[in-house]
Batch of 2 targets.
Target 1
Amino acid sequence: MSNIKERYAIVGVGESERSKNSGTTPLHLALDAARAAIGDAGLSPKDIDGFMSYSENDSCTSHQLATYLGVRPKYVKDILGGGSSTEMLVADAIGLIETGQVNTVLIFRSMNGRSGVRMGGGGWDVDMLQSAIDGGSFIIPYGAGSPSQWFGLFATRHMYETGLTKEHLGHVCVSFYEHAQRNPKAYFYGKPLTMEEYLNTPNLSSPFNKHDFCLESDEANAIIVTSAERAKLCKSRPAYIMGIAARQCVSHAHYWSNLSEVASDYVAAEVYKMAGVKPEDLHVASIYDCYSWVVLRQLEAFGIAPRGEVGDFVAEGNLRMGGRLPSNTAGGMLSEGYTHGMNNVLEIVRQIRHDYKGTERQVDNCEIGLCTGWAGPDIAGAMILRN
Amino acid sequence: MDYQKPIPLKNQDNQPYWDGADRHELLIQTCESCHQYAHPPGPACAKCGSTELSWENFGSDIKGTIYSFVVSYRPFLPGFQNDLPLIIAIVELEKATTVRLIGNIQECNPDDVKIGMPVKMTWVDITDDRALPHWIPAP
């Protein structure tokens, strides 16, 4: 296997407007995001010869997007998937470029996640859910139809074993909401959260209250991946990919037989090895945050704090600006917006490029960043970027 | 009144479990090759891939302890709007501690539920010919 460390880069990032009701189609949103990313890279649409997307059957296709950018692509791919799809598609793009099949790939996620198909539920056909989910007959008849409940079962046990408390979950939320106050495009810009308010908010499904849940938003995000050689021709500063773990799994989980490991535990070893870095080398992070607890479990998986000490780590303010590892600095999916992880990728690229230099949003002198993806306890990915 | 909640759908992998439940018996799939329990049941053992599978009948007197739980205050599926707050737990079987089942804890104050709490299986007839196992606190 050839070593791809730092031979590929993310050279463009872009997004559409973010709203609760876009009033338009995922294709329009995707075009806005794609044009923004192409402009960011200083490329023309015809420089893109591969297009990829992920969705939950709630988007447009890569072929449609390419068509309306006026491009004849050499490669299109649309996968079903949520969290950790971005990392997997970046890895797939590298493979295609490495084997000479394409030169430059645009990856997008477009969704009317609030006004259209909502992940938060409502409108699901219960017999479809039972059949679609492995082991569905053992959970759906008991009212367990939401990831908040499935992940909550992991969270309750993990918190019991490691001493994490509700207040520790709150530190994740409060830290990320604080970041959102520096991001005028964040959903919760102008709506900071105090620990008192957090602790006084009733649970929707224990151990989670509404602040522990990610948002639902209408928006599209896009990123562009190319080789380090081609990156030199772009106007943007490349975010070089030091290491990537496309997608690791533990056995399908819904979810009860093994709560003591998650796929991220395996991702961490792979991504650090390829990148040749250690947890203490990281300066900034985007940690998949569909729920607050998922962040805490990943901090443990990625060795950012030892098991049993993750609560202290977040309570000391280490996810905040000036902390040990400022994370989800646009507000994350808890308070910026939600595209199954890609908005967190956009942010870490911008941090690594020092796009915010001279403002309070910039993590000072950040050179190396970790970006994680989490489809569930059973499927995860990650990449490490540097400037 | 008709039962409003989702009823377990039988398929070729889970049918012995749900047929057993209808008779108020707990059947757990086991692997003849690696001699481990295979729950949830599937077309092959998820631990070793073997298709040499059989079913062990644990009878109707089932005890366990709560391994983890959530308390939901909002119905995330239709039919549960009158069951709030709803306790969903993972229960570890007393006679097979590697087997963990998801179920609701009934007749229990949500403030009292905790990990390690002993519970007992109870069988609820939900239609003329279907039954669903639940759990209640053990005395």
Target 2
Amino acid sequence: MNLYPTDDLPLSGIRALELSEIWAGPYCGCLLSDMGAEVIKIESIQRIARGPINPPPDGMYPERDPGERPWDRQANFNSTNRNKKGLTLDLKTNLGAEAFKDLVKVSDIVFCNYARTVMEGFNLGYEEVKKINPDIIYMLMPGYGNTGPYKDYRSMGMAIDAITGHSYLRGYPDMDHTNNSLVHHPDAAAAVNATLALSTALVHRELTGEGQFIDMSQAESFMTHMGEMFVEYQISGAPRERRGNRHPAYAPQGAYKCEGEDNWIAISVTNDDQWFSFCEVIGKSLKKDPRFSTVANRLKNHDDLDAIITAWTVARDKYTVMYKLQNKGIPAGAVLNCGPDTYADPHLNDREFFQIVEHPEAGIFPMSGPVLRFESTHGIAIHNPSPTLGQHNNYILEEILGYSKEKINLMEEKEVIGIIPLPGADLGGSRRASEEQARQSNAKFNNDENV
Amino acid sequence: MPYKALDQFIVLDLSNRLSGSFCAKTLGLYGCEVIKVEPVTGDLTRKWSSDPNSSGSGDSPLFHHINAGKKSVTLDLNSPEGRDILDILIQKSNILIETFQPGEMESWGFPYKSISRTNPGLIMTSVTPYGQTGPHKEFDYTELTVFAMSGAMHREGLPDRYPIRYGAEVAQYYSGNLAAAATVSALLRLLRKGKGDWLDISIQECMAGHPHQIGRRAPFIYSGELDLREQPRLSSSGTREPYAVGTFQCKDGYMSFLPLGARMWPNIARMIGREDLLSNPLFDDADKRTSNRLELEAIFQSWLNDRTRQEIFEAVQEAGVPGSPILRSDEVMQNKQFLERNYFTLVDHPQQGPIKLTGDPFRLSAVDEKPLKPAPLLGEHTDQVLKKMVGLDDNQLTSLREREIV
């Protein structure tokens, strides 16, 4: 669906090699490709991060049907790899490493969200790659950065969430942390910072001709999203505690139950003017109630106020309440669910946020985005579906690298490239994978949990 | 002279909300000269207190954080002279960041269409809760209400309780960060093609397009099933070891675990000194470990009870099990990894004194690090900037000051 010339996007003409999986690296690749870069995702048939080869019955596939090639139909993978080109390469082999180096010669960026030493292990670390292309921009983004005592610590979004102080702030203030959520935002924060890092290095190179190495710590990048918390501690001497949905200076604020099952409205009253307007809507007598006369009083009697508000919202439609309050200038938002509510949101639809794509294996479905809207491209992003495993092997090896048919056949024969994962390639994520293999694979990690 | 990646670009920061302000601050970390234009009475976030114990004097912690390194110029945009000065500042800038309601820039006489005629290379970045178009574009918002509208909140929390937001102002920071990435990418196009651009960043869309939200909607688009709030400790997607998923209490706090896949089982058994369990027929495959979860969880918990977060953190690294201590903000600041990397950066604020701020989100090897400066005092750089960029002299500045235009 190319609605405008794709050579006029901000990153048109940039080629990036992505070595990453799960969320942080892949979403960075999405954003780069949304902005016009040609992102080549390098995977291998020796090791896939596309779910199990023989999935359990409850797997997340279109219509819950994994099909003949589940790795090409897996929802998570197909959600976070849009617009990319797919190449498989066994980097442990000479042929594979050679093809990678040939690609480096014609690329601008290499980025990797595996553990710090993985690329070095293939003898494809920055020092090596720089010899082939001195202008290359090369980024490693392990959880805690490329130096320091934690540099080789495995990490995932959950670990970053915990160690940066974010997990401490999450959950219901009247419960302990054992109910903390398993949805972890730091991956996404890292993806965005990685995108910023690479574009900054591209600008630097455009001005100076210099490539460089980028050391990104996923933890450090996420902590910039909580900076005031650290300042607050230094000024007040008291570390911040959990607040749930409440706010220290806005009251009332919270999620209130509405008509129907699991329907809620989020409301924030941020000043006295809004409070008076709010009283006009839900009951004028509140205005005179001394318990709620000032922000301080409303904060003190928040529980009482919540009960009064809930009594009003509980029999009302969340959207009706939202429009009623917004019409009076009071911040309110329906708590949209992850299904019909979001897809039916009139605003997102008016902005054509969802675009229909057709994936060769997964079928037709709406894809989300664009989040980065440029006037020059009429605010619309290209949306091609995520690649199937090795989908662009021929295009990349033949058209970009000019390899002969014979050479490509040889690579196929030697299993350097392919489109079907080898047995055991899914060991990283499969519950059904042979436990015996798991034991043999050693207690130490495969250096692949850096996501 | 040290050269920073974005050294030659001037950012005019008109934003008065967190997301745009953070976007501008981040660009400043990599060399942009960021000029923050504030009303004569000061940006609202100077007083926006996130600290219940704040006395109301001095600038807020939030202001310190999201304005570090900027220059402050005061300007009354309600006066024609103030707007004339703004016009010149816009013409001499490379990037303009604003967070006004859609149409507000236009109402002051600065629609993008006319700005781009006088300064065709300008990149204007608008960061608003719902974007420049659409039926909700004028909705007012806070972190909570826009987070609710992204789909992220409905899924967060326990099934029998109200939906809850994440722990920080993540939607606003995240979208401000995305805006910065898009702005710098637009700079590349400017350098290559000489063309400016206008970016329309919607906080709702940034969060709705968040990779995890896309993932949460997958069950619906692929098979019509709605993903709902669930008990985290009971959730098992089939790829985890269910008895060790989620957050657990230990001797001095809490630890989070997310062991993915059956191959974690031997690691965990060895870590807790119970290799004997590996051959126990109650636990020798993933399905059995799921059915006998409570028994295993009790064994795991008793191991945790005797150990501190530090001891457990060392053990998980040794064993190869994904686990991490939940740290409080003061503990984060003392963490040896962040200390070793000199992450927190000391600045000396003229009123606040020395404070440590979060450092750069990433480190560029070809670029010298510029010492971070504290957030500016109100109007601290008015004279300096208006002399240099607008060519005003002392008399003109005095006159403007008397009429409270600066």
